[in-house]
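Quick log. Single chain, no ligands specified.
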Amino acid sequence: INSYSGYIKFTPEQFQQTAPEEVYRAPEKLFYRFINKQLVFAYDNSGLLSLNSCNIVIPKIPEVSVKYILAILNSKVAQFIFEKKFHSVKVLRSHLEQIPIPLADKNTQKEIVTLVDQLMNHEEATTKYHELYSRLDKKIAELFQLTIEEYRIINNGSE
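-> predicted structure:
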């Protein structure tokens, strides 16, 4: 995470609307853009706060890593499901609850979390980042048991 030069003083009593502080301070959480056609999720394990353009979800699926869920929700498969099912410019909780999270064994989750960690340590504009994302996304497509043709459709023929 980059260093910050400015801060917002957390005074919830002066804000129009806030979640309980324990939501912001959760040991692990995902931030996501609320108004957006694209699913965009970010991982936090440091108690960061967010502005109102960003919502928080704290996944609670037994024996499923939060970073694994992050990978699924940021995948092209999840984006495809979101676009086809909801036709919305808002990402609602009810939408997220309808995106399937394929269950994976511990080893598969660990492999996916390792790729997520590697992605988080690379700049988005680099070739290495795109290679890692492609590997991760293909792995997720396998979890959804997609055929090569189905994955091509999701990628708009770019694969």
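The chain is about 45% helix and 10% strand.
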